[in-house]
Prior knowledge:
The chain has helices spanning 3-8, 39-44, 51-62, 85-102, 112-119, 123-126, 152-170; strands at 22-23, 30-34, 69-73, 106-110, 132-134, 137-142. It is an alpha/beta fold. A 6-stranded mixed sheet has the order 1-3-2-4-6-5, with helices on both faces. Helix 4 packs across helix 5 (112-119). It is globular, with a radius of gyration of 15 Å. The protein starts with a helix and ends with a helix.
Amino acid sequence: MTILQYIQNSKYFSPKKNVILYDGPAKVGILIVGEQPKKSDEIAGYVMSTGEGKLLRDWMEDLEKDSVTGFCNAIPIMMDSKIESEDILYFKPVLQSIIIKTQPKLVIMVGDIACRMTLNLSYNHLKNGAGRYLNSILYLPFEDILHYSSLPIEGFKKFSNLIEYGEKFLGYKF
Length: 174
């Protein structure tokens, strides 16, 4: 069964919804994992196309890391209801497959759902710099980007510090 078939077997899938898996190079240095597509992403047909997602894309471009960065969401289709634990369990293999295929050195998890999907740990458990280094991949949490929509300069500083920390930890400049 392919990833797409797996998603289409989900109770949340309908032919009226776009499946939004991944945008970026086949192999990446940095993988940014958001929570779920927005309606604007579904219309555009790619992940993190507007709003907070575009802010992340702009930050990566400003850091000159956009050519080594991939973008995906923990949940690949727009949910019409609150995301529950069973949704996380169902879609977790999709995210794991994307991580395996793209082979990142650094995974940045944006928001609580991305943290729970990726590492089974909440954002609150991971904040304060408590990332994880597993299977040669550094996983770092970043708070929900919505906090920085009105404070993009402050968010950019925190985000660039996170990338810099990852590079120092890994001994690798992206």
